[in-house]
């Protein structure tokens, strides 16, 4: 099987960018990461079908010259699914922004508990130590007040 | 007979549409939901009897012969899990109808719940029955997309945070799933599960291993294996009790099912797989330690869920008939028991108005029935004889000892330890919630929030549904003998794979 270098490079790029964005703290970037990763995955399905060829209509070309239609069907299904879920994700992100007033990915609950416990212990050892990170104080979602036009 | 295979997928799908059409009539919605789920349970029973007697029931969709079309296959394992899932979804549906009526009266409709719940059932049924890797992806998406809607209904700030984690993690695993399918197709030229083993067998061992590992990662995220479990205890507890119950009972188990299916059918292992054994050990220990550290009832149950996924992985990693038979028993037991526990937790929190174990007390004295409904599945989860958990665990431990390698012994020891620690964890719940003086119910912090609404009131429907699930888990223990035999036959099928391939591909593919 021949390897299409251009496609391989494009795929590598899409996956890299997608995963990089997924690991960002801003929710919008995470969603963009999902979108780009989705493009990568769908393109990958297409490429998995082998090199391009003649369209699949009975009698229009030699069977050997035709492309494999199955990956195209799979990719089409996958595109529809990723598209629908992206819309849902965007709606959810908007809801999150409306409720929380910012679009940061929140800390894990366990992480917060561990940090709190740590802070309490430190507080016991040297109680005059000032809290260095007031912005991150406890229970991550006492966010800045939610915006006024919260949709209901 | 073969058309029966399509019904568990078709019925809930059509019923979901119908349920959306009649959304102005809550009575009709409830009737449709309950009827369809009962019908699926009956059909699953028939399929199980048929598959057990005459081998897998196969339907080639649209008349396209495998491996070119989509195939639905009901073998022993699929039919057994389908039956269990149908019973659990039915119980949870009755519970949530009961809760809805208690909270809001008979006449109010919750537009999205019933159609989405039926879609969830469609996805679950399709995942069990499909004989095609890409169709499995579609099944997962149907299931997950409806679970996204169910978990994000009536979003509060807390719930939107948790469900965001859930949705993004699930989506990432779905995209990895597509990637895996693309790789498998590029390497073999087919996505039919029955046609794959032969093609995979011809590949380079390195490629085989990497495809196998990618599948473990993809399904491992869905099944919440350590270290891919972080999303689960974070997101499940924020949903209303019935939703959490059905997620905890079914969704992770569908991941486990996919793992069992692909690792036995597609990749043929002759001996136990050490990587999977290590993951199983980690999952058990990390999960149960996480549970002990919790103070929130639902988070504790979620960590216990993660921990007990390790048992199923343990049996799978051994790749012996007894091991797999143990896994099948364990999955059946765990689906019912975990759902029952989350439903009971829903009852407890309605009485106490809080999920914090420190803040609640005296439930046993005030509501003895709830105490019984909690105690039975909790003891079963910890593996106390004579409950279903004991039967399943003893099968797994025997399988571990039978393999007898140092790694297998280590995981067997960890399984015993986890069992004891589970007992400790449920004892902690018991001491915190059930003993002590009868406490005043805590005031509802947010009366508009569905999760804590209606403190102090439970209807008969909710109790009957929970009681029904507990009764099913007791019945599993009563009929442990026949069930174990059935699991063993199913496990033998899985390891052999010949019957499945012959049934799907015709005589040529079998041998």
TrEMBL record, chain A:
Membrane topology category: Multi-pass membrane protein
UniProt keyword terms in alphabetical order: Cell membrane, Membrane, Transmembrane, Transmembrane helix
TM stretches of this protein: 6-23, 30-50, 70-94
Source species, domain of life: Bacteria
InterPro entries xrefs: CPA3_antiporter_subunitC, NUOK/Mnh_C1-like
Biased composition range(s): Acidic residues: 125-134
Subcellular localization(s) per the UniProt record: Cell membrane
Chain residue ranges for the region called Disordered: 116-152
Major localization listed first in the record, in broad terms: membrane
Family: Belongs to the CPA3 antiporters (TC 2.A.63) subunit C family.
The name this protein goes by in its record: Na(+)/H(+) antiporter subunit C
Organism: Prauserella endophytica
UniProtKB/TrEMBL annotation, chain B:
Annotated NADH:quinone oxidoreductase/Mrp antiporter transmembrane domain residues: 131-418
Compartment(s): Cell membrane; Membrane
InterPro entries: CPA3_Na-H_Antiporter_D (IPR050586), NADH_UbQ_OxRdtase (IPR003918), ND/Mrp_TM (IPR001750)
Alphabetical UniProt keywords: Cell membrane, Membrane, Transmembrane, Transmembrane helix
Superkingdom of the source species: Bacteria
Membrane association type: Multi-pass membrane protein
Transmembrane regions listed in the UniProt entry: 29-49, 80-97, 109-128, 134-151, 163-187, 239-260, 272-293, 300-322, 369-387, 407-427, 462-484
Family affiliation: Belongs to the CPA3 antiporters (TC 2.A.63) subunit D family.
Name of this protein: Na+/H+ antiporter subunit D
């Amino acid at each position: 099987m021949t390897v299409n270098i251009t496609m391989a490079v494009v795929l590598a790029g899409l996956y890299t960018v997608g995963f990089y964005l997924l690991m960002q703290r801003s929710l919008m970037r995470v969603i963009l990461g999902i979108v780009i990763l989705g493009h990568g995955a769908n393109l990958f399905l297409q490429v998995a079908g082998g090199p391009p060829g003649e369209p699949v209509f009975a009698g229009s070309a030699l069977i050997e010259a035709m492309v494999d239609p199955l990956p195209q069907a799979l990719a089409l299904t996958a595109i529809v699914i990723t598209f629908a879920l992206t819309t849902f994700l965007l709606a959810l992100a908007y809801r999150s922004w409306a409720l929380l007033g910012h679009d940061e990915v929140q800390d894990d609950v366990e992480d917060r508990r561990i940090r709190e416990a740590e802070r309490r212990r430190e507080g016991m050892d040297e109680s005059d130590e000032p809290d260095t990170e007031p912005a991150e104080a406890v229970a991550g979602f006492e966010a800045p007040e939610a915006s006024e036009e919260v949709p209901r | 007979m073969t058309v029966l295979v399509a019904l568990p997928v078709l019925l809930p799908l059509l019923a979901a549409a119908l349920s959306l059409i009649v959304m102005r009539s809550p009575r009709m919605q409830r009737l449709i939901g309950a009827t369809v789920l009962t019908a699926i349970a009956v059909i699953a029973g028939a399929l199980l009897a048929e598959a057990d007697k005459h081998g897998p029931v196969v339907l080639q969709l649209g008349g396209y012969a495998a491996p070119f079309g989509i195939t639905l296959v009901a073998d022993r394992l699929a039919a057994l899990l389908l039956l269990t899932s149908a019973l659990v979804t039915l119980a949870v549906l009755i519970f949530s109808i009961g809760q809805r009526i208690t909270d809001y009266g008979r006449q109010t409709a919750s537009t999205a719940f019933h159609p989405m719940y039926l879609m969830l059932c469609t996805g679950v049924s399709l995942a069990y029955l499909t004989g095609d890797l890409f169709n499995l992806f579609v099944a997962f998406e149907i299931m997950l997309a409806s679970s996204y809607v169910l978990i994000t209904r009536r979003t509060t700030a807390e719930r939107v945070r948790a469900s965001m984690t859930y949705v993004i993690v699930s989506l990432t695993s779905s995209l990895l799933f597509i990637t895996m399918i693309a790789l498998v197709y590029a390497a073999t030229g087919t996505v039919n599960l029955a046609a794959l083993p032969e093609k995979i067998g011809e590949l380079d061992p390195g490629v085989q291993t990497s495809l196998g590992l990618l599948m473990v990662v993809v399904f491992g995220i869905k099944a919440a294996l350590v270290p891919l479990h972080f999303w689960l205890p974070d997101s499940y507890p924020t949903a209303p009790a019935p939703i959490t119950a059905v997620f905890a009972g079914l969704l992770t188990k569908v991941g486990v099912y996919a793992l069992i299916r692909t690792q036995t059918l597609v990749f043929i292992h002759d001996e136990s797989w050490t990587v999977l054994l290590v993951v199983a050990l980690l999952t058990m220990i990390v999960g149960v330690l996480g549970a002990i550290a919790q103070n929130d009832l639902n988070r504790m149950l979620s960590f216990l869920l993660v921990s007990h996924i390790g048992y199923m992985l343990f049996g799978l990693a051994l790749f012996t008939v007894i091991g797999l038979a143990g896994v099948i028993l364990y999955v059946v037991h765990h689906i019912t028991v975990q759902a029952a526990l989350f439903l009971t937790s829903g009852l407890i929190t309605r009485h106490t108005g809080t999920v914090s174990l420190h803040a609640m007390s005296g439930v046993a004295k005030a509501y003895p029935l709830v105490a019984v409904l909690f105690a039975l599945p909790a003891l079963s989860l910890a593996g106390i004889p004579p409950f279903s958990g004991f039967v399943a665990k003893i099968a797994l431990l025997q399988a571990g000892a039978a393999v007898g390698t140092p790694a297998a012994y280590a995981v067997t020891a960890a399984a015993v330890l986890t069992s004891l620690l589970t007992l400790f964890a449920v004892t902690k719940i018991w001491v915190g919630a059930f003993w002590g003086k009868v406490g005043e119910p805590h005031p509802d912090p947010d009366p508009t929030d569905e999760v804590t609404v209606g403190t102090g009131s439970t209807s008969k429907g909710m109790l009957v549904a929970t009681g029904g699930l507990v009764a099913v888990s007791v019945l599993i223990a009563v009929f442990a003998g026949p069930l174990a035999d059935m699991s063993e036959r199913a496990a033998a099928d899985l390891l052999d794979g010949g019957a499945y391939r012959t049934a799907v591909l015709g005589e040529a593919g079998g041998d």
